[in-house]
Amino acid sequence: MFLLGAAVNGICIIIGTFLGRLFHRIPENMKTTVMYAIGLCVMVLGLQMGLKSDNFLIVILSLVFGAVIGEFLGLEDQLNKLGNWLEKKIGTSGQGSISQGFVTATLIFVIGAMAIIGGLDSGIRGDHSVLYTKSIIDGFTALILATTLGIGVIFSAIPVVLYEGLIALFAKGINNVIPEALLNSFITEMTAAGGIMIFAIGLNLTGLTKVRVANLLPGIIVTAIIVTILYMWG
């Protein structure tokens, strides 16, 4: 069952969010410090990923053109509108903004190499170990996020399952379409570009910046285009 890894990831996020709700009555100072700690850890993770590029010019071009496309499409605004709609339907229950929780958690859980590599492993080899590992990390992160950002975190499970599930679905025939060298190059540069985005999320979590990270997401597609062009010309 090639969708098992994605399903487990979504379930762990849901469980983590519910557990976080149980511990939401912790002191406000503790919540703030915990959020800073998460932000710092996310920044370090993003920095580690960002340094893995073999050609950092690809990362720069991907993020620049991705930002232009994202701003033009208003992806961050669209995500916030969806979160606000959920907030109107469900309410905040006095604990955080559903919109903020949904958008922040979605960006943290979706961006990164583990989602893509795990989806590819699930689809190509039927190996869910990467997504199982990601599920544990995401579940714990959802628990912490839910204590400060509220129930909105739980809705991030939907795009996570869809994203990883679609990757696994199309990966079943990917070996017949994409050369291994091209795929490995894309994963490397995508990891670096995604790492910069994750670093920006960490900055946002600590309150140092308000980067519209969702508007950088088209950079992943731009990365694939640039890597493919360089591969064909090489």
UniProtKB/TrEMBL annotation:
The keyword Transmembrane helix applies. The chain crosses the membrane at residues 6-24, 33-50, 56-75, 96-120, 140-169, 181-201, 213-233. Keywords: Membrane, Transmembrane, Transmembrane helix. Coiled coil: none annotated. It holds the Pfam family DUF554. The keyword Ligase does not apply. InterPro entries: DUF554. This is DUF554 domain-containing protein. It comes from Cytobacillus gottheilii.
